[in-house]
């Protein structure tokens, strides 16, 4: 584990998109709520199906994301993971392993929820990130299913609409 000062963490946070535009005073408050860790390559950071305990923000290095044994993504600097399970309280959706040596900031569940409540801009960025992941997953599913790119307004009307009362 690396021991860093609150000042160093404040500067690191200020350089992350998750905290873009946040005041220096707020960054100092956030920096006091996380720890910096040094993680060796090959170490499993979380396991699919386990309970989440933290949000991890990658500062340096890369991590591999796997679901049901299949590699689905790599995370690099400024990426984070753990937010989904912390938000909905369900088990982890993926296993994440350090592909290279990592430096990361770690927020425990209580601190993550504090940030969501107290920093609307942070909550908005987390929401945007989760929606981006959902859109990517939808796109990948669509490609696999051979679906067309037509909008719903171009689809045939549902059969139940014929049963609606007319005015």
How would you explain this protein's 3D organization?
It contains 5 helices and 8 strands. The longest helix has 26 residues. Strands 1-8-3-6 form a 4-stranded antiparallel β-sheet. A 4-stranded antiparallel β-sheet has the order 2-7-4-5, with no helix packed on it. Strand 4 and strand 5 form a beta hairpin. The chain is α+β, with helices and mostly antiparallel strands and 167 residues long. Helix 1 crosses helix 2. It has one domain: Jelly Rolls (Sandwich).
Describe what is shown at a glance:
Helices cover 35% and strands 23% of the residues.
List its salient traits.
167 residues; alpha+beta; Jelly Rolls; 4-stranded antiparallel β-sheet; 5 helices; globular; disordered C terminus
Taking the sheet with the most strands, its summary is:
4 strands, antiparallel
Counting structural domains, the number is: 1
Are there runs of 5+ residues with pLDDT below 50, and where?
159-167
The CATH class name reads Mainly Beta
The succession of helices and strands, N to C, reads HHEEEEEEHEEHH
- End-to-end separation in angstroms reads 70 Å
From the coordinates shown, what is the CATH architecture? Sandwich
Q: What's the average pLDDT?
A: 85
Shape designation: globular
Q: How many helices does DSSP assign?
A: 5
């Amino acid at each position: 584990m690396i021991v860093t000062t609150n000042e160093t963490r404040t500067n690191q946070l200020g350089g992350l998109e998750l905290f873009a535009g946040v005041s220096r005073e707020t960054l100092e408050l956030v920096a006091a709520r996380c720890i910096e860790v040094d993680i060796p390559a090959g170490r499993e950071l979380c396991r699919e199906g386990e309970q989440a305990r933290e949000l991890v923000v990658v500062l340096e290095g890369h991590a591999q994301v796997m679901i049901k044994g299949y590699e689905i993504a790599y995370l690099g600097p400024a990426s984070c993971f753990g937010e989904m399970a912390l938000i909905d309280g369900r088990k982890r959706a993926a296993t994440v392993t350090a592909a290279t040596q990592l430096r990361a900031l770690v927020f425990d569940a209580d601190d993550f929820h504090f940030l969501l409540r107290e920093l609307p801009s942070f909550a908005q960025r987390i929401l945007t990130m989760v929606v981006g992941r959902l859109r990517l997953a939808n796109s990948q599913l669509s490609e696999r299913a051979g679906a067309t790119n037509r909008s719903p307004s171009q689809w045939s009307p549902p059969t139940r609409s014929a049963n609606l009362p007319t005015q």
